[in-house]
Prior knowledge:
The chain has 223 residues and is α+β, with helices and mostly antiparallel strands. The chain has helices spanning 3-70, 171-174; strands at 86-93, 101-110, 116-118, 123-127, 133-134, 139-140, 149-151, 156-164, 176-178, 181-185, 193-196, 200-202, 210-212, 216-217. The chain has 2 domains: 1-70; 83-217, Immunoglobulin-like. It has 2 helices and 14 strands. Strand 1 (86-93) and strand 2 (101-110) form a beta hairpin.
Amino acid sequence: MTPTANFRRASLTGATLAVAAVLATGCNSSSSSSSAAAGASTTAAATSSTAAAASGTTAAAGSGNGAAASTPAGQAGVAECTAADLKIAPKGSAGGGTAGSYYSFIDFTNTSSASCTLYGYPGVSLTAASGAQIGPAATRDATTAAATVTLAPGATANAVLRMTDPTVYATSQCKPTTSSYLKVYPPNQTTPVQVSFKEDTCANSSIKMLSIRVITAGATSAS
């Protein structure tokens, strides 16, 4: 073989090796890029899953807090007492009190077949035989703190009603009259119960004759 032929063969062999090296480098680079991309994709997916889990946990906690805020502790699933669930009856004088006022009880008896709850202040006002309200509705007396009262069927709770003696006011100021009924709204309800209640009072709408305390457990012994 001539020297020229040997040179050409060597050149071709060198070129072939060079091309093979380039291809190998390209393959390795491509594999590395694919591996990096796959790794990044896996990391992104894991991050996304973690974020979703965290979001779910936060939402669940928020829902739980909201439920706890709207439902008195230990009363979940027990409905509030409505006017239809209750027999409401005023009971005689509770005695005592400050000069110029006297006290009565209002009993709330659960006449339904299921337990229900009462919480806070009932709405109370005096009315005439026509149903028209006499004077302002009872103001709230914060002497006792509010607490949820659960009434089993047949159980009773009560609230204390204070009434001002109308004789402490001049006749011209008081405008004396006699009530026919006591209108009572159970706490958080919009339907009242109206019961017979004849008491001397003042018709002057600027005189606050009544105040009411929160409902507490137990029946009264007053007659």
